[in-house]
Amino acid sequence: MTRPPGFDHWEERFAGAEFRFGREPNPFLLHCKPLLPASGKALAVADGEGRNGVWLARQGLDVVSTDFSPTAQAKARALAAEHGVAVSLIEADAHAWDYPEAAFDVVAEIFTQFSPPEGRALKWAGMKRALKPGGLLIVVGYTPKQLDYGTGGPKQLENLYTRAMLEEAFGDFADLSITEEETELQEGAGHSGMSAVIGLTARKRKGSG
């Protein structure tokens, strides 16, 4: 894999012994537990140190966890072993990975807002392609108000998510639900304090490609 932009920055952020974003799954992902299938395949996009992918595996899903940081994935491997679950780790750039066609029952993208607009379009197109018809999409990100809090996330306004952006990108999905809230996050040193977040759940329409 050719080293993508930001590779050295993220390798450095993940280099410490601590988990940069904590060891527990994101609260919105936890909230989505009733929507998960009892079995099937899940993709955790740009999953970093694996906290979300490992949790999905703990729910009985066959998980593929992607990230471009080998340092992060080494920690994800250790976290999976600690919980006694198997996770397939793939070193991949979320913008350039060859997302397999209709391969996953669940696709989760949790705080991957290192993507500039052009990269985000490629990432989201890949995620949509990878999801099976009827499959569950989960997206979590910061809104522009997060710039006021400064408790995590990107500093670039164009990288942040809005309701209109998500509705435009995933408006062809069924059962679309979007939640915006200002809440206290304690997800390691990376996400700590009052935060402005947005979460989406939706299902790829059956009969769509």
Structural summary, described in words:
The protein is globular and about 45 Å long. The protein has a single domain, classed as Vaccinia Virus protein VP39 (Rossmann fold, 3-Layer(aba) Sandwich), CATH 3.40.50.150. β2, α4 and β3 form a beta-alpha-beta unit. The mean pLDDT is 91. It is of the alpha/beta class. A 7-stranded mixed beta sheet has the order 3-2-1-4-5-7-6.
Mean pLDDT: 91
The total beta strand count reads 7
What CATH calls the topology is: Rossmann fold
- Return the domain count: 1
The total of helices stands at 7
CATH superfamily: Vaccinia Virus protein VP39
The helix fraction, in percent, is: 25-40%
User: Any idea what the shape is?
Assistant: globular
- By CATH reckoning, the class would read Alpha Beta
What structural class do you assign from the helix and strand content?
A: alpha/beta
